[in-house]
Amino acid sequence: MNATPVSPVSGIVYPVGLRLLDRRVVVVGGGQVAHRRVAGLLEARARVTVVSPDLTPALEALVEPGSVTWVARRYESGDLDGAWYAVAATDDPAVNAAVSAEAERARVFCARADDRSASSAWTPAVGRQGDLVVGVHGGGDPQRAVGVRDAVVAGLSDGSIRDRAGRTPVGGRAGSVVLVGGGPGDPGLITVRGQHAVAQADVVVADHLAPQSLLASLPPDVLVIDASKLPRGRSMAQEQINALLVEHARAGKRVVRLKGGDPFVFGRGMEELEACAAAGVPVEVVPGVTSAIGVPALAGIPVTHRGLTHEFVVVSGHLPPGHPSSLVDWTALARLRGTLVVLMGVDTAPEIAAALIRHGRPAQTPVAVVADGSMPTQRTVRTTLSGLVQTLADEEIRPPAVWVVGDVVGLLAEVSPPR
């Protein structure tokens, strides 16, 4: 693509948003550039026809379900009939020029991927935050536009650019709740949608395992409520948390429930969703990176590996085997050949390891314990099922820690430490 700024003599660009819902758009070309254009057009819910002898695998995958109509040949005059918009994205300048010329005769705006100066329309660098769309034109220089777009989107995501006026609560009502999974602790591992929700919050109800540095960046007018549940220590009752979410939402506030990991993986997220729904409060769920998968990955341990294991099980270890309230079938878990990931199982490790060995898991099965996953203090120790208890004592492992049982532990590789 031509990165040379276009002469002002040709006129400055007039920014306009095209509403292409169910309108025919023709893309000539089937390569990577065409794929990027098609992706944006489908998001606008246009009726997209691609004219090209060949397609990238990603474009071809859109043809079978009917998302895209494919004309499997080279461009011919008349292919733009009935189009509202056209994109010339082949690697042949002569073909692109012919497409552009037909579009000009038919008074159809056309974007040429190879020559912006010959285009009647420019595709901006586009970023989205919910229903907010940011489009940047860089005076003919696409890299300049991308740089500014990225800076604006990053500012909207981290809250340094405030969008207070545009915060439409979920369901269009006066107040709402967003259940956000913050990931294993490193603020860089929260999803873009999750970070955006936090940046737009009036009230944040946060766990101690949620990314704490995100809270430090919030404006002073945002109310932060500590809803930590310390292991076998102080904790806020779940009923109180539910009541706080409903209370602040009913007061017209945008409430974010910021949790560690994923809200629905041992996070009581469903209880909070049910409480909001019962109170008539609009609620949204933003999934997060669960520590059950993310923390082992950060330590270089895959929970599955081709030819080694076809299954993995995530289990809560907050109750030991034999506890009357435990819902875990430890006997069945011990018979599995795959990977077992134990969360909240530091204090109960002696009982869990003994039960797994007693019911058939070999005592020499490899085990890795990852403490403070994703944080600068993250560390990994390797042992076996029979040596787990002694290793935890020798290494003075305390929560939060995830331990992994299975042959995948032997694949542990050196990875860059959390930054």
From TrEMBL:
- Locate the active site: 207 (proton acceptor), 229 (proton donor)
Q: Name one GO biological process term.
A: cobalamin biosynthetic process
Pathway-wise, it operates in: Porphyrin-containing compound metabolism; siroheme biosynthesis; sirohydrochlorin from precorrin-2: step 1/1
Question: Mind listing the UniProt keywords for this protein, alphabetically?
Answer: Cobalamin biosynthesis, Lyase, Methyltransferase, Multifunctional enzyme, NAD, Oxidoreductase, Porphyrin biosynthesis, S-adenosyl-L-methionine, Transferase
Q: What is its EC number?
A: 2.1.1.107
Protein name listed in UniProt: Uroporphyrinogen-III C-methyltransferase
Boundaries of each Tetrapyrrole methylase domain copy?
177-387
Q: Name one GO molecular function term.
A: uroporphyrin-III C-methyltransferase activity
Cross-referenced InterPro entries: 4pyrrol_Mease, 4pyrrol_Methylase_sf, 4pyrrole_Mease_sub1, 4pyrrole_Mease_sub2, CobA/CysG_C, NAD(P)-bd_dom_sf, Siro_Cobalamin_biosynth, Sirohaem_synth
Q: Which domain of life is it from?
A: Bacteria
What Gene3D superfamilies does the record point to? Answer: Cobalt-precorrin-4 Transmethylase, Domain 1 (3.40.1010.10), Methyltransferase, Cobalt-precorrin-4 Transmethylase, Domain 2 (3.30.950.10), NAD(P)-binding Rossmann-like Domain (3.40.50.720)
